[in-house]
Amino acid sequence: MQIQPRQQLLEIWQAIGRHSFPAGEWEWGDDGRQSSVADSERLLCLLYPATEIPEFRLDDPDTTDADVLTALRTVGSRSDIPVRLLEVLHDYMRTHTDEKKSPTFAGGHYFSSADEKDEPTPEQLAVGVVDSYSMSVTLCLATLGFLKVFTTKPRRAEVRELAEELRAATSLRLTAAMVSLLRAFTVSVFDSESSQGEALVGLVGQGRIPDRLVVQQLQRRLKPLRATIRDRFTIGVDIVGDLDDENQLFECGWSWSVVDTAPPVDTTVPIGQQPAGVAQPVPYLYFTVSALDGIVDLFSDRTLTLGLLSPEQQSLAEALRLRWEITQRYWSLLARFGEGRWPLEDIPWRTTGQRLESEYFTLLVTAILAQDHQRRRGSEDDLSRMATVLERLAERGRITGRMTGRDGAVALHSPGVRLPLHGSDRIGPPMQWTMRDFSAQLLKRTIQLGTLSRTIPVRDRMLRLGETSLEHLWLRRLRSGRSSKLWDDVTAVFPEAPLPQATVVSWSATERLVECMVAARSLYQEPPLRSAELTLHANSLISEASHLFGKELLVPSSSADGTRAIALKTIEVALRRAREVVDERPSTACALALQVLVELDAMIMGRRAAARGM
Predict the structure, then answer these.
(1) Residue 285 scores a pLDDT above 90
(2) What 8-state DSSP symbol labels residue 487?
(3) pTM of the model
């Protein structure tokens, strides 16, 4: 299935408009269940493309394209759409604020009990979660950027007032989300002979060298990171363990919520009392990747160009950026540890904190490695090896591979990978978090690697895998009711999977698909990759065509032969165009030169035939 970002995004927007604006007014739906994560994902399905893709802009009604208006016709007219968005965003900010006017980040119904006989308590459902912190950063930045443009033109007094209220609430929520991300970061220090240490050593050593040597190499390579964490991590984190002891090992990343040892972060913004942490200070791969994806938006060109951050938010962003860089370096070091086969290539990845293994965790580590590759400008060989990992994951997840009877790979998609949330049992029954978006995550990372690659073979491999993954996901759209053409019906491709709740949309899967379309649009916006061999070939063709054209101009012709003059002029234009594009688009130059050569040969053969007939 061809990846067509514009057409497919418009189709998704049309489905969202039909689902969420059934009578021209927004309906939250979902049977009254509340989750700040789901609500953020739902709004980002509209706001993220609207702020990242110029052709999908909604903040200036005068520039909104006709096909965008057609897709959102259930929302309202050209001038109604941005006002409707303001109202919905204002409602979101109000809904996820407590009685003390402090932003909240509840996981809500995304939390579930580890024991089906128990239900999470209201206190547990209200606990903030890293997914919400991260999504809120992206949503708030998109909202602030939207308001920045929308308010530059005259508006009605009530609309201006609504926009100002939304701006204040959004900025407050952004600060609170950044503070919570700082407090959810953790560094777990442990002895190499502890169960966690043995798991880490076994993971990176792969049983190929003695554990003692693995520990020594780890300690040596982690030394610079250890020094940076010890000397510069001074805000919002309390390191549990003796990080100064270089005989100890450590892990860093984000736990599932604010950790129980995290101190408050001093701010001048009235974000309210910072809640005591619940989560144990143990990093989770899933929540680490979620945090990294949100933090990167703080340093995007759009954020910097529009000046969306206040001075205090810029200070918090720098603290988050340091954690972002150190975390990428740490997990990249583990993923590529040793010589020969990488630990990443030993599928599936095994977590040390939760003692779990899954292809999903391999996919998450690949995502971190891809971000780190972009930061440090890694080699094409690294990208090729990561591409191979994604191809293997697609086969193991039965996205490209053939299903077998009672295929265990189905569980990767439904019911999904379950994470125990350590520390949640302090305020109720043990809770868990379930990831069901393996296919969408795979598509997202495939497009990401395709964008990073500078070689034709790797990019082509990733585009082919991306097209196959998209076809798989497109088959999983819901087929009836208000939710039609949204996600996720796993049984459409995996009949053995548990039956879905047909009326409930997976905003997680839908939002990931929207992210993929935005990323694919960025990929297609770049110039095509060039082949040095093809450029040489194109220059050879142009050289021969130019020589023959010059020779053809020496042939006598009558002034009355207008057809020949037009043909020669056409050839001249084609040759000039071939020379212009040969460096950036050698394939196009080849096509133009070949066309010229065919036409010139036709002229030569025509003269020969005429000469024989005389």
Answers:
(1) yes
(2) B
(3) 0.91
